[in-house]
Design goal:
mainly beta
Length: 185
């Protein structure tokens, strides 16, 4: 099992750790290329561990933070960083990627696209024929509202999701909320 974290003591770099039995091993940081002197935000990895999606500021980006992707080669090295392009990335901040277990749905937060407030959560489906990501769709209310809605992650069965959002019923700023989807089997 992997866990990814933002480590602000390393200037917002991305690291990882694995489990050994019931214990977490000492965290390691991803190398240069993934981590730069600029900001790297949150990350999500494919179920098979070979594709990492993460957010970061890049000089050649679309504006603000962008969603980026990198693949693991057969030798266990991370390859070239790919920007997911203008279909996913807006001129504003795009951050907090989360990849579905089947790898065909990408959820992320954006201040651009057709946001209802500051950050909203969007989803994009992968075209099975071309492998390209389709135009993102705002997941809408009640998950999004006029306040900040940052991240989403789903349980394996898709029945529940956990979101990071600002709500007036919360304890202040961003809180973690559990969402139940009644239309799942």
């Amino acid at each position: 099992a992997f866990i990814y974290f933002d480590n602000f003591s390393f200037f917002a770099d991305i690291g990882y750790t694995t489990t050994k039995g019931k214990s977490w091993l000492k965290p390691s940081m991803f190398g240069e290329g993934i981590n730069t002197k600029m900001f790297e935000g949150s990350a999500s990895i494919s179920l098979d561990g070979t594709t990492l999606y993460f957010s970061g500021l890049r000089k050649d980006g679309f504006g603000g933070s962008d969603i980026l992707m990198v693949k693991l080669d057969p030798n266990g090295n991370w390859g070239s960083i790919e920007n997911l392009g203008s279909e996913i990335n807006s001129k504003e901040d795009d951050d907090f990627p989360w990849l579905s277990l089947d790898g065909n749905t990408l959820y992320f937060a954006s201040k651009g696209h057709n946001s209802m407030g500051d950050f909203d959560i969007f989803k994009s489906l992968r075209d099975p024929q071309t492998g390209k990501w389709q135009s993102p769709v705002n997941v809408g209310f009640p998950i999004n509202n006029a306040d900040d809605n940052h991240s989403i992650s789903f349980t394996g069965d898709g029945r529940y999701a956990y979101i990071s959002a600002s709500r007036k019923e919360g304890f202040g700023n961003l809180d973690i909320w559990r969402v139940e989807f009644l239309d799942t089997n």
